[in-house]
């Protein structure tokens, strides 16, 4: 799916329609010292095997794409709700 790099949308901070840049959300680096990561490692440790089932085949054929909108006037950023899509291409419109 082709998505324009800039769109006109309502900015809640400016309280008017402004041009907004569209970019893709990328998750940050996973931290081994994070509490959830430590808990998961603790559950997997020792006897008893794998805590969560290892999937033989993936259930989903697509990933969710989450666009990040950035107001060009006030530089406020927010995420739009993600949609399931195979491939996204940002194009100059």
Question: What can you tell me about this protein's structure?
Answer:
The protein is mainly β and 93 residues long. It has a domain at 1-26 and 62-93: Nuclear Transport Factor 2, Chain: A (Roll). 11% of the residues lie in helices and 38% in strands. It contains 1 helix and 8 strands. The strands form 3 sheets. It has a 4-stranded antiparallel beta sheet, with no helix packed on it. It has a two-stranded parallel ribbon with strand order 1-8. A hairpin with a 5-residue loop joins strand 5 (67-71) and strand 6. The protein is elongated. The mean pLDDT is 91.
Strand order of the largest sheet: 2-3-5-6
The backbone outline, from C-alpha atoms, is: elongated
CATH architecture of the domain at 1-26 and 62-93: Roll
Structural class: mainly beta
* Helix segment tally: 1
Mean pLDDT, to the nearest integer, reads 91
Largest sheet: 4 strands, antiparallel
Q: State the end-to-end CA separation.
A: 14 Å
User: Which stretches of 5+ consecutive residues score pLDDT under 50?
Assistant: none
Just give the CATH class of the domain at 1-26 and 62-93.
Alpha Beta
- CATH topology heading of the domain at 1-26 and 62-93: Nuclear Transport Factor 2, Chain: A
List keywords for this structure.
93 residues; mainly beta; Nuclear Transport Factor 2, Chain: A; four-stranded antiparallel sheet; two-stranded parallel ribbon; 1 helix; 8 strands; elongated
